[in-house]
Amino acid sequence: MATPSNTVESISEGGGGSATGCMDSFFDAPGPDHEIVASARALQPLIREHASDGDANRRASDTVMDILHAQGLLHIAVPKRLGGKGANFRTFIDAVAEIGYADGGTAWASALLNVCTWFATLFSEQAQADVFGGGKLSRVCGIFTPPQISERIYDKVSGGVRVTGEWPYASGSAHADWAVLGVKVGENADGSPILGLGLIPMADLSLKDSWFVAGMRASASNTLVANNVFVPDHRIQLFERMGDEDYLREASDEASDYASFIPVAALVLCGAQLGLVRAALDLSREKGAAKNVAYTIYAQARQSPAHQIAIAQAASEADQAYLLLARAAADIDKAASRREKLDRLTRARIRMDTGQTARLCRTAINRLLSFNGASSFADVNPIQRIWRDSEIAGRHAFVMPEIADLIYGRILLGLEEPVQPF
C-alpha cells in the first residue's frame, strides 16, 4: 500500500505561551529529515512481511529490529556525538508513523527504544560512557515508575541505590541492552518519595514473560525484574531535574540535547497510531470500498452515501491527529533549537495534543471498522490487528485523553496545583 496522499507534509510555527498563541502559524519550526523518514518508508514491505509472526510470537522480528538498528532508525534523536542521527522530534514521529503503517507493535517497540535511548543521552558524561562507550550504539528500554524496594546506600567506595522489584510493561525490552528505570532515591520531609531514573544494564536484570494481551503484542512489553541490583550515583538522575530540563549531560551544540523531557515522553507515544490510522484508511479505500453493502441496493461500498461520509470523516480525523501531533513536535523542536525551556501552558497544550491525537486515531479506526463491516474482525484481515493495536496504544497512562483534558483545562484556568507531579 502506498503512503496516503492526504498526509500533511508541513506544519507551521509554534504558538508561544499564550492561549491564543496556539493558533499562530509555524513556518519557522524545524521540519523533518525526509531522508530518515524515507528510509523508514522503504522498509514497510519487510516489516509487513513479519507483522503476523510478531503478533503471534509477542515480540517484533529480530530481523526487522536489526535492520532498523543498522539504518539508524532506533537512534533517531540520539545526538550525532554518540553515533545517532541527531534528528528532531518531528522526524521521530514521522519515521515511527511509517513503521506503524506496516505494523503497530514493531512501531511501538521502536518508538520506546528510540526515546529511552535518547533519555540515556541526558545523563552524566560518565553514565553516557557506560552506555555508549567505545562507539557502541546501545539500545535502551525504560519505565518511569519505581519498583517495590529501593534502598539508598553508601559504602567506602561509592554511593548509589540498591533495588529489588519489578517494572512491568517494558516495551522493546526483548531488544534492549540497557534499561532506564524509576528508582526511589530518598524521601522528602513529608515522607513522599524522591524519585530518580537509573540506568541499569540488561545483564543485571531478568525478564519475566508477562505480556499476554489483546493488542500491541509485538511490542514485547514484558516485566523487568531486579534482585538486589546496585545502581551507582553517576547512573542516576533525579526525575524532578529531568522534568525541569536540568540535565546532567554537558552543554553541546546539538539541538536534540535540549528537547523537553516530559513533553517528548508523551509525544512519542502517538507516532505509531498515526501509521495505524493511515493503514486502516488505505485498506478501506482499496479493499473495503469494493465490497457490497449487504441488504442494500449498493453493489459496492463506494456507491453508498453512508460509506462516503464515513470515510471522509475518518480521513479528516486522521489529518487532524497528524496536525496536532506535528504542532506539538514543532513546539518541542523550536524550543530545543533555541536552547529554550518550554513554558507551562505550552507543555500542557502538548499533553492535550497527544491525548487528542490518540482519541482521534481511535475514533477514525473504529469508524473504518464499521465501514468495512463484520469481516473487519476476521483473523486474515489486517484491520483487526490495527484496531487491537490502536486500542491498547490509546490507553497508555501517559497519553490518556481524559487526563490530558484535565491538565490543559486547569492550566488554562490558572490553577497551579499539578495533576501529575511532573
What does this structure look like?
The protein is α+β, with helices and mostly antiparallel strands and 422 residues long. Among the domains are: 140-243, Butyryl-CoA Dehydrogenase, subunit A, domain 2 (Beta Barrel); 259-422, Butyryl-CoA Dehydrogenase, subunit A, domain 3. Helices cover 44% and strands 14% of the residues. It is built from 13 helices and 8 strands. It has helices at residues 34-42, 44-57, 62-70, 89-102, 104-120, 125-132, 239-243, 261-267, 271-286, 305-337, 344-372, 382-393, 401-412; strands at 140-143, 149-154, 159-170, 178-187, 193-201, 206-208, 222-232, 236-238. A hairpin with a 4-residue loop joins strand 2 (149-154) and strand 3 (159-170). Helix 2 (44-57) crosses helix 4 and helix 9 (271-286) packs parallel to helix 11. The longest helix is centred in the C-terminal third of the chain and has 33 residues, at 305-337. It is globular and about 75 Å long.
The CATH class of the domain at 259-422: Mainly Alpha
| Unreliable spans | 1-17
User: What composes the largest sheet?
Assistant: 4 strands, mixed
**DSSP strand count:** 8
Question: What is the topological layout?
Answer:
Blueprint: H1 34-42, H2 44-57, H3 62-70, H4 89-102, H5 104-120, H6 125-132, E1 140-143, E2 149-154, E3 159-170, E4 178-187, E5 193-201, E6 206-208, E7 222-232, E8 236-238, H7 239-243, H8 261-267, H9 271-286, H10 305-337, H11 344-372, H12 382-393, H13 401-412
Parallel strand pairs: 1-4
Antiparallel strand pairs: 2-3, 3-7, 4-5, 5-8, 6-7
Key terms:
422 residues; alpha+beta; Butyryl-CoA Dehydrogenase, subunit A, domain 2; Butyryl-CoA Dehydrogenase, subunit A, domain 3; four-stranded mixed beta sheet; 13 helices; disordered N terminus
